Amino acid sequence: MTALSLPTVLFSRLALAACLATALGASAAQIDVAGVKLEDQMDLRGSPLVLNGAGIRYKAIFKVYTAGLYVGKKVSTTEEALAAPGPKRVAITMLRDIDANELGKLFTKGVEDNSPKSEMVNLIPGLLRMGQMFADQKQLKTGDTFTIDWLPGTGTVITVRGVPQPDPVKEPAFFNALLRIWLGPNPADWKLKDALLGKQ
């Protein structure tokens, strides 16, 4: 009986090890969006984040960029995303060459279209800074990446091609205004909004 049970025990342990290996492999999985690889989990300044959703921003029939939303815990509504505590990230990868100044203007218009009028006066300094940052970039090329991070205690940090831009905007309202570009009542792309909220 003992001799027979030993292989059974070994088999059970091997099966368990295989399951653990599979689980560990899954924990470092990548999502492919239009050929862009997005990690399904990441660490942002010591805080673990999960990929809530990712999709493509279309302009007419053209693919402009991919976007992924990272949060500490999965959300399914705009309100939950805005209220989520801790660090957050929007990761963007360009799918075509674009004038960076033009993209900055599109983002500013996206904020104006999705923010309460009463908030706009407080957002103007941050929008001017962001607009200047994009203008300084001249052009974003296919494959270029930038991230928009909310870091509690630091503010909104925009990183272009791996280089953090100076002078974070400290007010939480500014990051939420940027997030509403994609998740607000008049989003840049309705399908992308659903994708970022994990509904696709």
Description:
The model is unreliable at 1-11 and 16-26 (pLDDT under 50). This protein has helices at 2-27, 78-83, 100-114, 117-137, 172-183, 190-196; strands spanning 30-33, 36-39, 41-44, 47-59, 62-71, 88-94, 98-99, 139-140, 145-151, 155-160, 163-164. The protein contains six helices and eleven strands. The strands form three sheets. A seven-stranded antiparallel beta sheet has the order 3-4-5-6-9-10-11. It has 200 residues and is an alpha+beta fold. Strand 4 (47-59) and strand 5 form a beta hairpin. The protein is globular, with a radius of gyration of 21 Å.
List keywords for this structure.
single chain, alpha+beta, seven-stranded antiparallel beta sheet, two-stranded antiparallel sheet, 6 helices, 44% helix, globular, disordered N terminus
Short description:
With 200 residues, the chain is an alpha+beta fold.
Poorly predicted runs of 5 or more residues:
1-11, 16-26
Tell me the number of helical segments per DSSP (H or I, 4 or more residues long): 6
User: What's the total count of β strands?
Assistant: 11
Quaternary structure annotation: single chain
Mean pLDDT rating: 87
What is the molecular shape?
globular
Radius of gyration: 21 Å
Strand percentage, roughly? Answer: 25-35%
Structural class: alpha+beta
Strand order within the widest beta sheet: 3-4-5-6-9-10-11
Q: What is the straight-line distance between the termini?
A: 53 Å
The sequence of SSEs as H and E is: HEEEEEHEEHHEEEEHH
